Amino acid sequence: MFWHATLGSVRTLLGRTAEQERLSALVAGITESGGALVIRGAAGIGKSALAAEAATQARAAGAKVLAVTGSESEQNFPYAGLHQLLHPVRKGIDALPGSQREALRIALCLADGDIPDLYLVGMAALNLLSDTGTPLLLLAEDAHWLDQASADVLAFVARRLDSEPIVLLATVRDGVPSQLDTELPSLHLEPLTDDVASTLLDEVAPTLDPSVRKRLLSEAAGNPLALAELPATIQADSLLKATLPLNTRLERAFGARISTLPADTRMCLLVAALNDRGSLSEMFEAASAALSGAPVGAETLTPAAEAGLIEAALGGAGANVAGANVAGRGSAGQGESGQGSSGQGGAWLAVGGRLAFRHPLMRSAIVQAATAAEHRAAHRALADALQKDPERQVWHLAAAATTADEGIAGVLVEAAERARYRGGVGAAIAGLEEAARLSESGELRADRLLRAADLGVEAGRSDLVERLLAEASREELSFQHRARATWIRSSFDDGLVDDTAGPIELAKLARSVFEDGDLDLAMRILWGAGMRCFWAEPGPEARQHLLDVADSLPLDEHDPRLIAILAYVAPIERGKAVAAGLMELAGQTGGDPEVERFLGSAALQIGAFELAARFSASAAAGLRAQGRLGLLARALAVHACSATRLGNLDVALPAAEEAARLAKETHQIFMYGFALSAQAEIAALRGLYAEAANLIAEAEQVALAAGARPILATVQLARGLSALGEGRHADAFADLHRVFDLTEPSYQLALRCYLIADLTEAAIRCGQEDAARKIIQRLEKDAQQTGSPSLHIGLRYARAALASDDDAEKLFLAALAGDLTGWPLERGRLHLAFGEWLRRHRRAAESRVHLRAARETFDALGLIPWSERARSELRAAGETSPRRTPDAREQLTPHELSIAQLAAEGLTNREIGQRLYLSHRTVSTHLHRIFPKLGITSRADLPAVLRNSPG
Fold it and tell me: Which UniProt keywords apply (predicted)?
């Protein structure tokens, strides 16, 4: 066993000082702060050796090591990897908060219940690990083979380890995609240098012929596993004469050892390689059945151990395979998984009756060396041995099947539904795809492939969806199938990056689907088409097509789906109907957060920002409790936009920050851009112009290529507000005018209606009143069709600001007489404009009343440039205005402000963590940073500081 014999030397010969130092630094600080690192490299490059060294260092620092090893055969079992990782600390699950406790128990098959959202499971796992009370090293070997649900949870946890005494270390093989590798810092291992490789080979095989030694060094190309294993194959195989990829060459090297083993040993190894649990008891039972009942015992494995294919120690270091007592074992996963590194080539010791291959390539070599008939026999035997575990049994039945089998296919579909129910979307897709392969009719095959493709959209896997749709298209598709395929293909990113079907095509498709009897699918298609009207501009013809179809469907006028569709498709023309529907539903949503999210979005479209803020706040609370972070990001973005337009920046600021963070985490690139543009608008209102410029640049980069109009429109608003604040009035007018120009990519039918006051102010200050009046005239016609509060408030401001001296005062007073209770920003704007008008007309005493009101409003809202403008006008009107004292809240980041506000409401650290998807330890760390910024020493002081911040 050459690799084992040389591990000690490898640690000193790897020649990877920088890599070892980086790992050591990460592990050395484990008691104070955490982090994550992915070690990537070719098979056999030394990833496991470095991971083993990290485990040794972690234990020396007093940390506990929890380990999981990904298995290719376990990829179809949701949360299998998480179960292995958390098993040693599972007793702590009972102490978790209720929703998290139940979510984790359901995910780990410890309880039945409604499908838990993956992020709720992630939050539960984070808190479980945080509550262990000891520093932890989480070691994920072969993370590229973890089931998707477990990988997603580990990625979620890894992003939240900065303030935790937890380090996540994962190893990933080159050429195999892994979510961990795409989201976390990585360390790529390069081959050994020539000098180090030469020294290692001399230690492994000191008597090699010089010519063979030279060829082997060349073929190994600095791969430590190749240098350790290939010398043993030289006499038995002409391996070095072949021109093969290194991994293939290694697999052949291992295969050469397999071919010399007894038949019963080879069958044991094949069964073990195809089994997903590595259980010895299962392996012996199945291998015996595959060998027609021949007795199989622990001694059968001795030749494999002597050939260096499997671990020699079972149940503890030093226990010989041949002498191990395997009777009664099978409690796989008991105790600390793997007990860390075996110290033998980075492979893990088999514990609790588990068999471990010394390297994944050895498992692959065993599978490749077997014949198709041997594969089927092994799978059938495993299926027989798993009578009490139908979830696993069905996969072996499927693998053993050589022809279509509707019985097995049906069971696979049921297994896929259970996997989806548990949050395992990837496993559900795999189950449906395998069921399609075994389906006895083309119709069933197409249906299952389309169902898998639909789940692929949910998983964000466009490449997988295209492949599944291509396979489905080989069948004779019914109309319903073709409709579903069209809808699925155009479902990514709200249709922005796919032109397969435009709104008109989707409208026709929705009508046909309804006429074919599927109202639910018709509504889904119509909703998707409506979303395209938000993100892009399809033109009046397309909008009318969608309206005609919506009107033809047998839906109640207060159906939330219909209201939302009408708001997106015709925010002006159907604005009054939407507003009436929203008011009717305002108190009748029944607490369904998804319905409230629809209604919040609809309210935003028609400028009913008070309703939008109310619906989206309620939706966010519900979605947060359910752990549905993808939808939560959308609800928070709507909430941030609505609160910003109302001037409630204390709410908008943390909502926009969290929306951007969660949208990025859930891979919603355009929603991320939308949240960024909202942050830019907030920064511009607060006078943080450099910050606004950075946010604008990033949001615009997201939006320009796809022409995402809502992002571009909000970017132009942020630009215009910044220019106004800096006194660049002509620039401000040019920026804002683009949102009203149909030929511009920033034109957006709904959002343009809510920039009227800003455009008017810029126009007045740069001599563009006539251009502004033309726009206002067009919007006056729109106002006759819609009850949009924002549009009417903006028009009242514009009428007064652009009026002649004879009419202005009357119009200002009429505007101020409107109901502006929930619109402090607009009330302050009117007071400021009216005060300025009065002062210019030498009515200083009257102007001061309005200017004071404006100053007080803007101070309270934290709109510094606006309040300074009011102060300047007051001084010009003959009144000294005290300088504004900086608000304590302005010292905090948006994230810190959110935590401080929740703490001020009396929430505990754990409750805050539940709300914000952070661990309670992270919340505590943030609070200890917040207190000095606010000049306080405890959370008890927070309510007074946040309530009484001077302004």
Answer: ATP-binding, Nucleotide-binding
Distance of CA 836 to the CA centre of its chain: 49
Q: Which pLDDT band holds residue 819 (cuts at 50, 70, 90)? A: confident
- Helix residue ranges, H only, 230-279: 246-259, 263-274
Would you state the structure tokens that stand for residue 38, as one six-digit string? 């992915």
Kindly write down the DSSP assignment for every residue of 523-583, as one continuous string: HHHHHHHHHHHHHS---HHHHHHHHHHHHHS---TT-HHHHHHHHHH-TTTTHHHHHHHHH
On the 0-12 / 13-18 / 19+ scale of CB atoms within 10 A, 97 is: middle
Within 10 Å of residue 371's Cβ, how many Cβ atoms? 9
Give the tokens for residue 82. Answer: 């998480």
Least confident of 122-126, 494-498, 538-542, 898-902: 494-498
Beta partners for residue 276, in sequence order: none
- Given a contact cutoff of 8 angstroms between Cβ atoms, the answer to whether 555 and 522 are in contact is no
Encoded amino acid at 55, one letter: A
User: Of all helices (H) and strands (E), which one includes residue 140?
Assistant: strand 136-141
Residue 646 region, left (φ>0) first, then alpha (ψ -120 to 50), else beta? alpha
Indicate if the alpha-carbon torsion angle 83, 88, 91, 95 is positive or negative: negative
End-to-end CA distance of the chain: 75
In this predicted structure, the answer to whether residue 306 has a pLDDT above a threshold of 80 is yes
CA distance 930 to 919: 17
Q: Is the pLDDT of residue 295 over 90?
A: no
- Among residues 725, 761, 763, which one has the least CA distance to residue 833? 761
Query: pLDDT by residue (tens digit) across 412-436?
Result: 999 888 887 766 778 888 899 999 9
Q: Which two tokens stand for residue 94?
A: 């009972």
Q: Which residues contact 156 (CB under 8 A, 6 or more apart)?
A: 118, 119, 122, 123, 125, 126, 665
Q: Which residues lie across from 188 on neighbouring strands?
A: 40
Tell me the pLDDT band of 927, cut-offs 50, 70 and 90. Answer: very high
Q: What is the DSSP code (8-state) at residue 221?
A: T
Cα dist from 516 to 491, 500, 503, 505, 513, whole Å: 21, 22, 20, 16, 5
How far apart (Å, rounded) are the C-alpha atoms in residues 485 and 786? 37
Residue 219 in tokens? 């073929």
Residue 284 CA, chain-centre distance (Å), reads: 42
Give the predicted TM-score (pTM) of the model: 0.78
Q: Parallel, antiparallel, or unpaired: how do β-strands 166-173 and 186-188 relate?
A: unpaired
Cβ(624)–Cβ(631) below 8 Å: no
- Which string of b and e fits 396-425 if b means at least 16 CB within 10 Å? bbbbbbeeebeebbebbbebbebbbbbbbb
What DSSP assignment string belongs to 834-863? HHHHHHHTT-HHHHHHHHHHHHHHHHHHT-
pLDDT at 78: 85
SS3 33: coil
* Amino acid found at 85: L
Contact 498, 490 (CB under 8 A): yes
Please answer whether residues 933 and 892 qualify as being in contact, where contact means their C-beta atoms are separated by less than 8 angstroms. yes
Rounded-to-integer distance, Cα 339 and Cα 779, Å: 71
- Paired sense of beta strands 341-344 and 347-348, if any: antiparallel
What pLDDT was estimated at residue 110? 87
Q: What is the CA radius of gyration of the chain?
A: 33
Query: What integer is the mean pLDDT of 438-446?
Result: 93
Name beta bridge partners: 187.
39
Backbone CA torsion sign across 73, 145, 143, 666: negative
Say what the pLDDT of residue 567 is: 95
| Residue 348, φ and ψ in degrees, nearest 5 | -100, 140
Centre a 10 Å sphere on the Cβ of residue 159 and count the other Cβ atoms it contains: 17
Torsion of CA 233, 235, 241, 246, to 10 degrees: 10
pLDDT of residue 107: 87
Bridge partners (DSSP) listed for residue 169: 37, 139
